[in-house]
Amino acid sequence: MEKKLPGIIARIGDTKQEIKILSIGGGAGEIDLQILSKVQAQYPEVLINNEVVEPSAEQIAKYKELVAKTSNLENIKFTWHKETSSEYQNRVMEKKELQKWDFIHMIQMLYYVKDIPATLKFFHSLLGANAKILIILVSGTSGWNKLWEKYGSRLPHDDLCLYVTSSHLTQMLCNLGLKYECYDLLSTMDISDCFVDGNENGDLLMDFLTETCNFSTTAPPDLKAEILKDLQEPEFSVKKEGKVLFNNTLSFIVVEA
Ligand SMILES: C[S@@+](CC[C@H](N)C(=O)[O-])C[C@H]1O[C@@H](n2cnc3c(N)ncnc32)[C@H](O)[C@@H]1O
């Protein structure tokens, strides 16, 4: 993020008096504030209008708290919309309030969007001159992809969260005829505790990896044993200094106006 972002936002504010940023699924704002500080560094004199589309009231409250205790945000105007991306889309289309944006980001949130191609097409239509969309989600080369491909059908799964990776995303962008660049950012997650029987952190990590509540106590023993064995295999993890590090590679996809 630190290295990649300056290049990605390099021209978004050129010749502009105000930079308009739309954060989709901004959560509690930690990543958003990192992005904003990079935009401030690139364009120190320019006002920033940062609007956030986020359905969770709890996340919005945390975001507001973070903004309140962070300094150097004077040139940024924040607005929060408590809604999903499709509710935002419907609202602005109904009211014909289709404004253009300089930077739209969707970070670790497309898993929760039902119609991703329609969402991409809509938000792409809102890009102004030199504007970009940044999407971050797990890479098709990550352990997540292997886990979902191999075990997705055997894990309890609601339709709230999709097994979507950068490979699916880039295919969708190609189908839509949109220009994009995709970079992988190597990242790992220490899952060593998963292999310590009865370890509380390990149990929580297993819940996170399988998106299942209380996986360790409720999963069929054969499924649990197979997953625990596979998680130590090289397609899923690397072993380093006695630790098991899950392949959590993320992709940055930058879509051009
Ligand atoms: C994993 S968090 C990522 C938060 C933040 N972007 C980050 O990277 O730290 C996903 C966020 O997307 C939000 N979300 C879920 N469904 C959404 C939707 N349909 N439209 C917009 N945001 C959504 C969630 O409430 C949550 O805050």
From TrEMBL:
GO biological process, one term: methylation
PROSITE patterns, per database record: SAM_HNMT
GO cellular component terms attached to this protein's record: centrosome; cytosol; nucleoplasm
Reaction(s) catalysed by this chain's protein: histamine + S-adenosyl-L-methionine = N(tau)-methylhistamine + S-adenosyl-L-homocysteine + H(+)
InterPro entries (UniProt xref): HHMT-like, SAM-dependent_MTases_sf
Keywords recorded for this protein, A-Z: Methyltransferase, S-adenosyl-L-methionine, Transferase
Sequence positions that bind S-adenosyl-L-methionine: G25, E54, Q59, S85, I107
EC number: 2.1.1.8
A molecular-function term among this protein's GO annotations: histamine N-methyltransferase activity
Root EC class: transferase
UniProt entry tagged with the keyword Plastid: no
UniProt key word ATP-binding: no
A Pfam family it matches: Methyltransf_23
Gene3D superfamilies (alphabetical): Vaccinia Virus protein VP39
Function: Inactivates histamine by N-methylation. Plays an important role in degrading histamine and in regulating the airway response to histamine.
Assembly mode: Monomer.
Protein name (database record): Histamine N-methyltransferase
Taxonomic path: Eukaryota, Metazoa, Chordata, Craniata, Vertebrata
